[in-house]
Fold:
Amino acid sequence: MFNNLSEKLDKALHTLKGHGKINEVNVAETLKEVRRALLDADVNFKIAKQFTNTVREKAMGQDVLTTLNPGQLMVKIVKDELTDLMGGDTVGINLGGSPTVILMSGLQGSGKTTFSGKLANYLKNKKTKQVLLVGCDVYRPAAINQLQVVGEQIGVEVYAEEGNKNPVEISTNAIKHAKANGKNVVIIDTAGRLAVDEEMMTEISNIHKAIKPQETLFVVDSMTGQDAVNTAKAFNDLLNFDGVVLTKLDGDTRGGAALSIKSVVDKPIKFIGTGEKMDAIDVFHPDRMADRILGMGDVVSLVERAQEQYDEAEARKLQKKIAKNQFGFDDFLSQIQQIKKMGSMKDLVGMIPGAGKALKDIDIDDDAFKGIEAIIHSMTPSERTKPSIINASRKKRIAKGSGTSVQEVNQLMKQFDQMSKMMKMMQGGGGKRMMQMMRGMR
Structure:
């Protein structure tokens, strides 16, 4: 996510992060590199120039050159300006109305249908809403079928009218259906259209006027950069939409759309899509994104994801097992499943401060746990419950059954043993002793 931009901004600010001599000349040079990094990310030239001018004014106004840590203060100013550039505050979705009607708009191929499913899944699970998906893309072959597959996958009803080619009729009928069947959110997936296609733009305008949605979202493929921003302006002039959705942020995103779109259309980015899975959706937090762009990670989002997967009853059971020294490979497997539910490994690593930069050239595969899972699944129930019985001959059988080597089985056994000891220590007085040691190190 924004790897290229992050790398260039880090390089630009590197000189100022140290404690060397800083003067107006190298501040100007640094901001010149910052502007170049923004332009390379496909940020509008005027916005990039205005951004660096504002940073320079604030830097000089706060006497950056005379502070104890000028580099750190400069980074903070850049971070604050990036946050403001992307909207400043987090803006949630409007769920007023009975039912709430959400109209999805955007270009062809921007990921509207997939995101409609993600949003439906999000509202169903996080907001406990009864959601109805509506297929109004009557032009693209198999578009409605795709939406139905998505709906079945997440357990959400899909409303469609076979043979009806009038999206205005379909959407108004869908809202009546929602009212009659206790649905309190209606998400209308429309056909992708080009801003220059007057007939198609008129059609979505007619849908908008007919259904009067509480939320109109414009879906942007974040990989298209400045072109997406220009298109957003054309759609906003017509629909006056409420917010923007950035999709495909898990790809090789340059960042221009995320950094420019708020300045151009004055509408907040509300959601981001970070992968193919139906739970790969996040509320957009400008301050957290600024942290990630500057390589500071996003610990708050990481903790929130962990809390979502946290099961208090399971945690208590696990605590008792650890206390009785009964922690086994089935428990270990359960912990792996919880981590996998948190999102893609690459995205999670990017949330850890410094880790994204350290591992930027390493390909982090979402199947990183595949070998471990294969080894555990090749064990007998008694071996998973009581790992101490696994001897040399059992290791050979497990390695053969999992398609791995005895060395890999030994490595997992060693890691498991170390983790068990650490967990045991944290359960006892060790955790308290560690906290005392950490306090003493301050």
Notes: Confidence is low (pLDDT under 50) at residues 429-442.
